[in-house]
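User: Hey, quick favor. My workstation is busy. Could you predict this chain's structure for me?
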Amino acid sequence: MPRRDSLRALREALRQHHGNARIWENFLYVSMDVGELADTVLAMRNIFELRTSSRSDNGSATGDKLERAYDFAVLRAVVESVMAGDELPSGTSARTLATPVEQLLERFTDGAAGGSAAGGPQVADLFSLRAEFALWRGRAGESLEFRQRAYRAVLHSPALAGEYGAFERAAAAARALAEAYATCGPREAETRNDGSDAGALVCADWRYQRRTMLKTLVSRTKVNGLAGSVNVAGR
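Assistant: No problem, here it is.
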């Protein structure tokens, strides 16, 4: 069956079984395959809601549920397509999906914050992606915040106690955060509705914060007996 026929059949099936996560998952991959990114975003949102409907006590997704709640490769592909302004089958730009994609990223990162999903590479990757998208949207303060959260997610991972691969992930997150301090820190902060941040910088002491972050990582990895060094440009 041609892929577009499959998409129509799945859309009809969802009218009858809207709460079926497996059908939504098939719809997700077929819509992505044919470039119907609006449908892909819709599918990701519904899959996430269905698979995280049972929440932890603090309202966050537990680690096992988070892993099944979204496909990070698909999410990244959609985000990159939006930022690149790829042409959709309708002839419009993928940038028209910037707002729903931003809302999707907010929903996912809110769900990942806290609980047993608070640390680890999957959460760090999600936070990093939101940081990247926020910077593209011109929100330097939000971008720096999520680079910090991505770094903390790997820094507090239990695997950092002895796995060199975890150290490499932490070093990569540290480099990304160091770059974010230099890129976002000197920028003017987004003005709040009450005008309280007018004229303020995102991070006035970004150089100090960058040095402190690096020292913390080096100190922690020395305590854990991991050899190697963190090479951060502009250290």
